[in-house]
Amino acid sequence: MLQVTDIDLSYGASRCLRGVSLSVGPGQVAAVLGRNGVGKSSLLRSIIGLEKIQGGSILWEGNEMRGLGPAERARAGIGYVPQGREIFPFLTVQENLETALAAAPRGSAVPDEVFDLFPILRQFLRRRGGDLSGGQQQQLAIGRALTARPRLLILDEPTEGIQPNVIKDIAKVIHHLAHDRNFAIVLVEQYFEFARDLADTITVMVRGEVALSGRTSELDEAEVRKLLTV
Ligand SMILES: Nc1ncnc2c1ncn2[C@@H]1O[C@H](COP(=O)(O)OP(=O)(O)OP(=O)(O)O)[C@@H](O)[C@H]1O
């Protein structure tokens, strides 16, 4: 279980997150929605340890993550797929995947599951990351996160700049990871429909704060849409 409680984050004098809370358990997908610049990526970066929060707590599987760096949080089972994918363009697909093994015990390999989920990665193992399409790069970024064998997967706008047929594949994978493999998943999205169809809970942020949060089935869709457009 991930329990983010009342976190505050400032960049210098500018407050970015104010009292933000979010929780997600194994087998669940929590979506975070909001317009550009409301703090969604900053929230994710705070959870994985790339930003140093000034207040609040981040409990993962009962342990406080707040004082830990990103590598320690990764070892604790937190996986991250960054916005824009951040594939290494001059490394091959295989090498990109293997970067996630840096902290793994010696002799560890890319799990077969990665290739079962994304057969294209096996086919393109020796191709350079920079030569893949946007959708293939997104699959590689998710595959790379899974290579570290996380139990919590955090995805920042996985549908950004990707064709509809690949978006469907990615939605299927996220659904499978949560419901068949018991991952806890936090997903930041711009597209309401994608989040609604996948997520158990939705949190809508406005200017660094949680404006609305609840079970997807119980949220007033019109109200959510209003917060995403004003
Ligand atoms: N490293 C930083 N230094 C200073 N300000 C930052 C930094 N990162 C983000 N910000 C500011 O914090 C606010 C929240 O940014 P953030 O990227 O978290 O929003 P977002 O909701 O993810 O937006 P987007 O959908 O555009 O990715 C913005 O005003 C942004 O300009």
Automatic annotation (TrEMBL):
Taxonomically, the superkingdom here is Bacteria
What keywords sit in the KW lines? Amino-acid transport, ATP-binding, Nucleotide-binding, Transport
GO MF annotations, alphabetized: ATP binding
One of the Pfam families matching this protein, by short name: ABC_tran
Q: Which SUPFAM superfamilies match?
A: P-loop containing nucleoside triphosphate hydrolases
ABC transporter domain span: 2-230
Per its UniProt record, what SMART domains does this chain match? AAA (SM00382)
Regions annotated as coiled coil? none
Family as reported in the entry's similarity comment: Belongs to the ABC transporter superfamily.
Q: Which PANTHER family does the record cross-reference, listed alphabetically?
A: HIGH-AFFINITY BRANCHED-CHAIN AMINO ACID TRANSPORT ATP-BINDING PROTEIN, HIGH-AFFINITY BRANCHED-CHAIN AMINO ACID TRANSPORT ATP-BINDING PROTEIN LIVF
Q: What is this protein called?
A: Urea ABC transporter ATP-binding subunit UrtE
Q: Which organism is it from?
A: Sediminicoccus rosea
Name of the gene this protein is made from? urtE
